[in-house]
Batch of 4 targets.
Target 1
Amino acid sequence: MHPALLNIQVERDVLYLTLNRPAKHNALSTALLTELREAFSLYRDDPTLKAAVVTGAGEQSFAAGGDLKEFDSIRSADQVLTMRATAMAALDAVRHFPVPVIAALNGDARGGGAELALACDLRIAAGHTKIGFIQSRLAITPAWGGGVDLLELLGSAKGLRLMASGDLLTAETALELGLLEAVAAPNQTISECIEDFLEPLRRLTPLVARGLKTLSAAAKRGASREELLALEAQSLVDTWVHDDHWKAVARLFKSES
């Protein structure tokens, strides 16, 4: 029996997805991309979730990019667009997941792996991790929306520089640039870093987690101020009238009495 390409676990209101092709540096094959899309689609309506985490098996690679051996047979424009559509569906399922998604880089994120990392809302990394848009080394441009994500995150000049250079950045450099939110401390495992980073999200109610993700995602896609204010208002109403809010108020009053 072949091991699962994607390991799925739900624990303490968090969905954990582990890319499980360590012998192939967790390269993103069509089958793995399809399973990733299906998993995010399956859990998107789970009302208990507060966050999701995407990581890779092993310590060497988060994801080495697209599976070059599989994609070597892609030669025509139509085949390229079909491959892109499959991968875009997977990464869009990540981008549009209703609660915050964290990319936990247990190792290097290269090319398409970097695109997957940027499809997530937040990124943390083990200290030895390197991340890079290395597509230009293969004489191609980003394939799955990651170039757009990079430009939105860092701005046009810095994003262009990274895509043109094809550089692999250390975790510390990526943190300084704003590609990462946190890097594991020395002697801290990526699992420990994940749990530390998740702690504020775990304190949220599921409805607040969804409201914050909705607002953040709309801002990322360039929604107008009026649209953002309308989303903020609706989220406030939804959370204010919910029992979770009144329970939190009661706990606060009790602690102060």
Target 2
Amino acid sequence: MWRIILMVLYNLPFAPWWWYQLCHYAKHTDEIPEDKKYALLKKITVHANKGGRVKIDVHGQENIPREENFVFFPNHQGLFDVLSIIEASDRPFSVVAKIEVKNIFFLKQVFAIMKAKFMDRDDVRQSLKVILSVTDEVKAGRNFLIFPEGTRSKNGNHPGDFKGGSFKCAMNARCPIVPVAMLNSYQAFDTNSIHPVTVQVHFLEPLYYEDYKDMKSTEIAKVVRARIVERIEAAEKEM
């Protein structure tokens, strides 16, 4: 909470104009080009992170596919995860989020601009509809981010189990699966500290359809989690 206040205070001279743009873009998201919307989100995010004393240390941008649409699959540490990946990624993406965060102040407008999908984890039928919708949108040209843990980890940089069902949309779309290793993202919003934080975002080598076409979703989940854990453990030794 205190870091969010710090972000707002640091950017107070620009906040009214950015807020107006966010609300306008959110209201007219179907009419505004994708790259223009993402440029606004990225600009606001970069300034907010700087004001909040959060540095984004990016690795592996060359692993983000350029010729194909894809799905990011990061470990989930907290509300800051999406903002850190917005700054780190130079390609626009949407997100699948839990329905509980749909109306959180500021994030509501960000999600509207991104045309995010919201999943009710207690409603199997609704969750299936979301997966089918994401599949169609990836096929049509949109990139997505999905947290395969389903909820944030309570153990800092140590991910929980990855759910195989999270990978169904990528499998059905036959698109690249991009593992993303997050380190220290939880320290931004999920603690009461305003001390400087460095969040590491590692885009790992993608799994292309030819790599996983003969695998079950649960097997893919284990492979992706293992790669992320390996990268996190290596990065922690380097810190």
Target 3
Amino acid sequence: MEKYFDINEQSLSIRCKIYFDKDPHDLKHIVLATYGFGGNKDNKAIEKFAERITTKYKGYGVVCFDWPCHGKDARNKLIPEECLLYMKLVTEHIKNELHAEDIYNYSSSFGAYVTLRYLHEYGNPFKKIAFRCPAIRMYDSMTAHITDDDWTILNKGKEILRGYDRKIKISKEFLQDLHDNDVSSYDYMDYADDIIMIHGTKDEMAPLTVAEEFSENNVIELIKVENADHPFSNPKYMDFAIQKIQEFFAPED
């Protein structure tokens, strides 16, 4: 089952969605799930994951939300600090209003980048974290397909549009922020035992070599999925990833 709700804090309205089996008020374990750039809270990969874990384990729920400028969010300029604030407010809501005993984090691509920045700046509120196809070097991923004409526009102080269903304004300041906050240079050793990474060998947006270097530097378990692309578009590979994450988030005996 699923239900939409809003979090209205600090003059913001965060559009959220919760998945649950029977009762949304009886969830002891909640997974905060985030997606990649240009997506939204109705993400099909998250929906499939939520269906699996909420029916597999009693008392589990999944919460996702629209990043700033994504989905039905009202913002019109993407600012990384606001992404961090959204994650902070949603995490606090899960703890204080939904009364979850444990909060997990399942994030992919851009969502994984934001989560890693969150860990660096705020510490770790999550019991366990699973990253699928994390965009660890988000600046490189975002600028890889920017043309010379695009850079000319950006250098004039104007914005370019990126995204899928909803076009998102990207400024030079946004890209500079990503450049200045390179999570691959941060230390996550203290959280390593509670993190797994799942990455496809055919990922062209977030290269496997970057994930390998990051996992080695931080002693984080990396599960490689042969021939999987960035979105894990092959259902077989997605099912494998979901199974691994589900097992990692399993309740302790």
Target 4
Amino acid sequence: MLLAAGATVLKLHPIPPQHLPYKRLDLDRPIGIATGFQLSALRYDPLLCRGVLDISALQARPIDSRRTGEFCGFLNAVELQRSTIAYSAPVRVTCPMAAALYLWEREVVSPSAERHFGSPVVRIDHLGTYSCRRIGNGPTSLPSQHATANAIDVAGFRLADGRRITLTGGWDGKPAEQAFLRDLRDGACGLFKGVLSPDYNAAHHDHFHLDMGPFGVCR
């Protein structure tokens, strides 16, 4: 009887697909409890990832794979051509990174800006994506996720009313700026695998590091 009752409830109130880990990611859906898992699945299936991007409103151009060093280069990378928010410079990242950025812009950045400032974000300022280097530029440390175009460093946000919110000035700045930037960090943690903010260390005092690497970290 309990099984029958449960089946009836699910039939009348089906679980949205963004809450089901085995469902394919759809970038037009809102974020759900399984969205992070669905995003992670894209790392292991390039064809699935390209399909997810192709049926979304995000416009991205595939980039030829490249090997530029012992551990540097990228596979399954794209260049963003049109997203929900413009960027200060071209964004060339792996396909899963592009999908996560799109959701972060729409579901985290834009609502938070409207909530705290009453003005939309029209540009995201970033410090770079691909860079052939190791973590912290150390000679023996692990390769950075930047070495495979699997990361981006975000430094600030330009609002439609002309205001600019930066990590350097806003993290410990006015209350609205502090709240906005922490909203963005916390919201990123449900989408990206690696999220590092000024709370992590002095090297990140001026930017968010966002990546889709193998290790989960939210600081």
